Amino acid sequence: MTAVAIAEPFPGERPVTNEIVREHKLNPTEYRAILDLLGRTPTLTELGIFSALWSEHCSYKHTKSVLRRFPVDGPQVVQGPGENAGVLRLPDGWAVAFKIESHNHPSAVEPYQGAATGVGGILRDVFTMGARPVAVLNSLRLGPLDDARNRYLFAGIVRGVGDYGNCMGIPTLGGEVSFAPCYTGNPLVNAMAVGVLREAELITARAHGVGNILLTVGARTGRDGIHGASFASEDLSAESQKRRPQVQVGDPFTEKLLLEASLELITGGFIVAIQDMGAAGLTSSSAEMAARGGVGVEVDTSKVPTREAGMTPYEIMLSESQERMLVVAEPHRVDEIRAVCQKWDLDATAIGQVTDDGIFRVVHDGRVVAAIPGQELVDGCPMYSPPAEESDVARSRRALTPAADARDLADALERLLDAPSIASKRWVFEQYDGTVRAGSVMPPGCDAGVVQVAGTSFGIAMTVDCNARHVLLDPYQGGMGAVAEAARNIACTGARPLGVTDCLNFGNPEKPDIYFQFVEACRGIGDACRAFGTPVTGGNVSLYNQNPAGAIDPTPTVGMVGLLADVTMAVPSHFRVSGDAILLLGETRGHVGGSAYWAEVLNTVGGAPPPVDLDAERALQQFLADAADRALLRSAHDLSDGGLAVALAECCIGGPWATKRYGATVDLGRHADTVTDAGWLFGEDGARALASCDPAHVAELQRLAHTHGLACHFLGLVGDADTDVIVQRDDRTWRWPVNRLRRIYLDAIPRRMAAAPSDAGVD
Amino acid sequence: MKIRVHVRIIPRTGLLDPEGQAIAHALSALGFAGVGDVRVGKAIEMTVEATSPDAAEASVRTMCERLLANPVTEDFSIKVERA
Amino acid sequence: MKIRVHVRIIPRTGLLDPEGQAIAHALSALGFAGVGDVRVGKAIEMTVEATSPDAAEASVRTMCERLLANPVTEDFSIKVERA
Amino acid sequence: MTRVAVVRFPGSNCETETLAAVARAGGDAMLVDYRETHLRHADAVILPGGFSYGDYLRSGAIARFAPVMTAVRALADAGGAVLGICNGFQILCEAQLLPGALQRNAQQRFASRPVDVRIERTDTICTSDYAADEIIRIPIAHGEGRFVADPDTLDALELDHCVMLRYVPVDGTDAPYNPNGSMNDIAGLCNPAGTIVGFMPHPERRVDPALGPGVGQRFFTSLMSRIATGVAA
Ligand SMILES: Nc1ncnc2c1ncn2[C@@H]1O[C@H](COP(=O)(O)OP(=O)(O)O)[C@@H](O)[C@H]1O
Ligand SMILES: [Mg+2]
């Protein structure tokens, strides 16, 4: 073997042994590939670099073949997967950049900083495309709140998400939270950012131009989160809790300055490329930018500004210190770049250059400590397609049914509204600034967030959704269902879905039943996205979400954006006028398998979730957008967890800060059918929404529904303020005072969070 | 007896302390030269009912470990007022 | 010489301290009995270049008066590490 | 045209919508950097919301030493119009241009929500277009908005009618009407002359009728007419 390029160990660096290879989570096949690639034993610095880039987080070694099957094209696509964020076309030369990312493992160890830096990271992904972030969303999964540690994690995560976006001045416009025992010890924190740019100003993270300069901009490099990327790619065990890498601490203040400086550098045309130093820090940013540009790079770690003296090249290359950017620029621009950074109180430091030999080279004080063929470093990790097979446990779970229905369905609704997964999330989003930037059309608490694009008449609708219980019970249906629910939420506001970003949170892919969940859920997402014409423009994979008790429920969070052509036509989610007609859109078949009713009231996580009807979903989406265009709807709210009864209650209860809540009288009896009472009230068939309108518009809406091939049932009328919610079916009547429902719904989470202190020490 | 206890909770060395940095900056802008390594944490004071100062200290130590300090990011120290 | 200085900034007595109250509450819910009068403030540590510990203390006192403590709501105390 | 300076400190994040609100009300809005030492002949200055210097130490504590604050103080001393919104209010208190202090919300959490506030004084630089005792629903978004002052100061504030905005309950409210535990339900203050004002709510987020009731707009139209009639410096 002859070495492709020579590197020598940094003085004091340990020689690479099998033990050290194992510590770096590289398996024998991968190590062999490294030896073949280099033609010699790697230095420790090189091994660290490989270990980071060949981690699941960076290489997608278990998932790439599956992700390739997502639809990625469409007339609206400006930038598909592969860049820092996806970009879709909006009217009038505008475009939207958006992406979702997980920060699960860091949040399990340090909830506040883990969540905060998750938001910080995803914001950088968006503004490095040249987009100004206009909204943040978050999808959270936690263990039940009767456990003190879960309360501690929940409180810290919410505070972390909020503080970061609040300080940056970016509204957090939506999200979801749900609770299930599988997330105890392994919470999920997925953050999505949405930004707006002029399509012409898009910039990509491709280093080109031999001789161009690499600069770091922003914070200094410390020993934070070294090996975060490989940490994110292993099971959470007591052992890894102890290993606690240096926690990454977020500084949203510096990030705000970095945001302004970056946008000025990009829109001013000062730079060639820019990428944030996220997972695997300087290593992944420089290697990926070089590989995308088909060039080599040389980084001089001794020039990188550090927070502590004596940091080694290994540490500098792998540090995950936050709020740092890597910029590529032509040499004659460096002074101007420094001036822009100075205006924002930031430092820009030249640390390397673009080379013509395709080698990823690290030097320190004139000594070459790493020299790796760059393209292979990024693309050369062995790929795996592990066996995928559904487990018997999963099959029998799907066959499960509860012993009997609840005796009292009125009480069942109250129990559902008191379930933290369904209850109002006001406690969460009141900690998130939802109105900064003054463009929020629909704040949190609606079906989807909507933000106006400043200076235009249109807005961007956005949501994140996933019913993990459905995915657990049937990964294919559940995957489709997540996309369908997201699209429904978007459509309820009157917007049309445009595209998707996804965050695939799963357990250990090396286990066949987990890999089965992954493959099937992705197939479902892909099929739904194809049917809706909403391409996947990017996303994130988080595997190894396990705790000692097993894997999390498969949670492929779908982030979706849509276009609302006229923000003044946005449709709210809740009833607004007494005497309005209540319409149920879509067919009710009474599927209660996999429902929240079974899980929360009958303590049965089982059954087959309702099959997703993609055609019916599309018809509903188009109807909702058409009806909104014609200003026919007073409100629209999708049916999801808890089915019709929960949706009706929510429409009556009103928004989080409503001073008026309405009664309603609904008659299900006029629909002669075989659906059970529980099926009507709590079944979770998709492709449905509850709308209200001026009674004068009912006929027109029914005609419109007919043209879309959509069922549109008149159910009853919105009642007076502070009266009862009444549902009748034949000789049965269920009745709830709306103010009682509201109190249950609003108090569920605060009551639990106040119950006992958060206990940081319990583990 | 009632014993007054003072707790200091400071971010671990090595961890970024953006607040400390901002304060260091502000002090130097105000003309205070030669200020370095500023770290900002919490000061907590409380009165504890205990049989002895040592017992008070032990009890507050447990409070720190369980609630007051974040074991992942913070170090703490305790001082007991001995009358 | 380089001198390490510790500052404690505590809300004025008489002023409501909701954070202190919340902590007292949490402690008692965790089973710590006999905890009272909890007050929560800031602990700031810094290294100061000064000719003597007394000079360091004087300089930090000025910092507290001008920036570190809010005269409307906070009291401060300073401790200088004397080698 | 009325010249209004909107100051950007490092970490300010509401300057864009504040500038837009001024422009919508017919003013000539200028962005002024915190390093500048004069306000470019502005008739009024607004310190906008945000997290100046990350709100590290205490919100507003570091910003009050920014170079531009000398000019702000000079304008205030000359009887000019000075507004602080949210973080700007915190800065004005730290700078002792308004009394008291704004501390961490009583519930220890950030509060982002609409609140109902009553306009207690309509003869200030930014409230003349409101009716006396008018109640408006307007967003807040802050972690440190609990107004505190010693009892004497508080008495003096009430006696001199320096409380400009107060949180009030309205029918149907089912969240605490005082969102942060402020003493005397104070949401905003002014000096006795009504020329220096500071408040926690964000009127600049409620000026576009396309996005909801534009109840905040009149803060800015009031300011324009007050300056036009020459009451301020
Ligand atoms: N973590 C969160 N952050 C911000 N908003 C949230 C969060 N969780 C829930 N919400 C908001 O609460 C509302 C209801 O959420 P959810 O019950 O998940 O609705 P849906 O079932 O329609 O998706 C939505 O407006 C959502 O954006
Ligand atoms: Mg919904």
Describe the structure.
The complex is a heterotetramer, with one copy of chain A (763 residues), two copies of chain B (83 residues) and one copy of chain D (233 residues). With 763 residues, chain A is α+β, with helices and mostly antiparallel strands. Chain A contains 27 helices and 28 strands. With 83 residues, chain B is α+β, with helices and mostly antiparallel strands. In chain B, 34% of the residues lie in helices and 39% in strands. Chain B has two helices and three strands. In chain B, strands 2-1-3 form a three-stranded antiparallel sheet. Chain B is elongated. By secondary structure, chain D is of the alpha/beta class. Chain D has one domain: Class I glutamine amidotransferase (GATase) domain (Rossmann fold), CATH 3.40.50. In chain D, strands 2-1-3-4-11-10-9-6-7 form a nine-stranded mixed sheet, sandwiched between helices. In chain D, strands 5-8 form a two-stranded antiparallel ribbon. The chains are: A alpha+beta (763), B alpha+beta (83), D alpha/beta (233). The site of adenosine-5'-diphosphate has 20 residues of chain A, from strand 4, strand 5 and helix 18. Residues 447, 489, 638, 640 of chain A line the site of magnesium ion.
